[in-house]
Amino acid sequence: MSNASPSKLFPLFADLRGRRVLVVGGGTVARRKVEALLDAGARVVVGAPALEPTLAEWKANARIEHIEGVFAAQWLDAAWLVIAATDDVETNRAVVDAADARRIFSNAVDDAELSRFHVPARVERGPLQIAISSGGGAPMLARLLREELETRFDDSFGALAELLTRHRERIRARWPELGARRRGFAKLLSGPLQGLLRQRQHLAAERAFDAALREHETTATRGSVALVGAGPGDPGLLTLRALRVLNEADVILHDRLVSDEVLQLARRDAERISVGKHAGGGGHSQAEINAQLVALAQAGKRVVRLKGGDPFVFGRGGEELQALRAHGIGYEVVPGITAAIACAAYAGIPLTHREHAQSLRIVTAHGKDDIDALDWASLARGRQTLAFYMGVAGLDRIRERLTAHGLPAATPFALVENGSRPEQRVVAGMLADLPALARLHQVRAPALLVVGDVAAFANSLHWFGREPLTDASFTDAAAASPSLAAAA
Ligand code: SAH
Asked: At which positions is NAD(+) bound (predicted)?
């Protein structure tokens, strides 16, 4: 095997605590290496004619030693490792040659050929470190992979590694035999422990850990429920935590509003159950859904209750948690991007604006009773933005009540149908024309209604999908599409 381009490097994690490491170079590249070395507890000596400000500060605080001047071989005296971090290839080469002569391992920054050891790309979570190397051949690929791993493993892995390190002796004593330890571990990790760490419930996590150590191997694991917001439809708007929970799910109970693209991101072998409620009755009642959540969790499943938008905004998430709590079932809540936030963003409507609106009202206008219960006098005030959910069927009433309470008929509105999805449509106009325009364009649920001066920005700031439909654009569309004209 040729050693000109090393096809295989031997990975190793070095204990540098208290050991002298030489860094040649005093610029920002050197500073980054020094920082990592200090983090590992090394005694760092920096050799360079001059130091950049942070290095100079560390010198002043005696965190590093400084040898001033041009590289000389005796700088390597007593060093365990050396990093050549100058911007001069010849100097770097001289450092590596001198180190070779003394059999000291050397690294030349960003020079795989010259380096005798490589510093891998890494992902750090507390005491846990994942190091990635492409052998120097494809550093961009290693970097990409690192980014992917950064999103795959959240902070809870650091807390987990820390907890396991702390209890290392107890774990060995509990499962002296390797096979049993492996099984015990697998079960420990499939339980609530990591979820608790993720929620920063460290005391509860310690208790769960204790319980797992005491448990017999045959005891069933306890189920739990994650109430998760799936966002408005665009899978890119899912949170990293939602993605993680979806990857760990045994069962997913989802609403009709959840898009297929989002469901596709869940664990392949997770069972998917649609529990959509239909406006005209039928489907699943809330009581049925609550009972199903409780039963699945009691059967030991990791359940994800997946809802469109955010689970706590017109999502009945509160009622489901009350049911879970009443049965002593563990849960967590993962927020999602709610329709008002998503639709406004994807329609180019700033929900607040210093000149137009200082507050945002999130309102439901589902049935006649909901509508009558609203405080219309306060909704009809100016300088605010109204976001109506579930309002498609009540547009006539919304316009009538707002106008009756004094909101000018010329107030702009925008109706965003299927916000953030490829088929998104925006209908924009004046309050006076709201129901007529919606009928003209046959707007259907799910659609979000924005009322207020900011809604007019849909005409000038739109960026996603088709241009807003207004009176004028309807005339164009009608000319181009006789069937639409006929339908209207
Ligand atoms: N929990 C959800 C809201 C559920 S109520 C959330 O936070 O978004 C259902 C209503 O939400 C729909 O009638 C519609 O008004 C709105 N909605 C949800 N997703 C939408 C989307 N992609 N585009 C437009 N409106 C949407």
From this structure: 28-29, 49-50
Q: Is residue 232 domain-resident?
A: yes
- For residues 392 and 113, what is the distance between their CA atoms, to the nearest angstrom? 65
Among 386, 389, 392, say which to mutate for ligand 1: greatest number of ligand atoms within 8 Å of CB.
Answer: 389
The DSSP secondary structure of 62-109, one letter per residue, reads TSSEEEESS--GGGGTT-SEEEE--S-HHHHHHHHHHHHHTT-EEEET
What is the share, in percent, of the chain residues with pLDDT greater than 90? Answer: 71
Pocket test for ligand 1, best of 258, 260, 314, 420 (most atoms within 8 A of CB): 314
- For ligand 1, is residue 339 a contact (CB within 6 Å)? yes
Q: How far is the CA of 419 from the centre of ligand 1 (A)?
A: 9
363 with 464, same domain: the answer is yes
- Helix, strand, coil fractions of the chain, as percent rounded to 5: 40, 20, 40
**Is the pLDDT reported for residue 478 higher than 70?**
no
Taking only the tens place, the pLDDT of each residue in 122-170 is 999 999 999 999 888 888 899 899 999 998 888 899 999 999 999 999 9
219 annotated as ligand-binding: no
- Asked whether 117 and 92 are in contact (CB, 8 A), the reply is no
26 shares a domain with 165: no
> What's the pLDDT score for residue 472?
60
Q: For residues 262 and 271, give the distance between their C-alpha atoms in angstroms, rounded to a whole number.
A: 14
Residue nearest to atom 5 of ligand 1 (CA): 314
Evaluate whether residue 12 is within a structural domain: no
Instruction: Name residues whose C-beta falls within 8 Å of residue 44's C-beta, 6 or more positions apart in sequence.
Output: 21, 23, 34, 37, 38, 63, 64, 65
Q: Is residue 151 a part of any domain in this protein?
A: no
- How far apart (Å, rounded) are the C-alpha atoms in residues 306 and 319? 14
Instruction: Examine the domain organization and report whether 391 and 443 are in the same domain.
Output: yes
Ligand 1 center–CA 416 separation, angstroms? 10
* Ligand 1 centroid distance, CA of 464 (Å): 18
Q: Give how many domains the chain has, as a whole number.
A: 4
Q: Is the pTM of this model over 0.85?
A: no
Our answer to whether residue 277 is catalytic in this structure is yes
What is the domain range of residue 326?
A: 224-337
Q: Which range has the worst mean pLDDT, 37-51, 81-95, 256-270?
A: 256-270
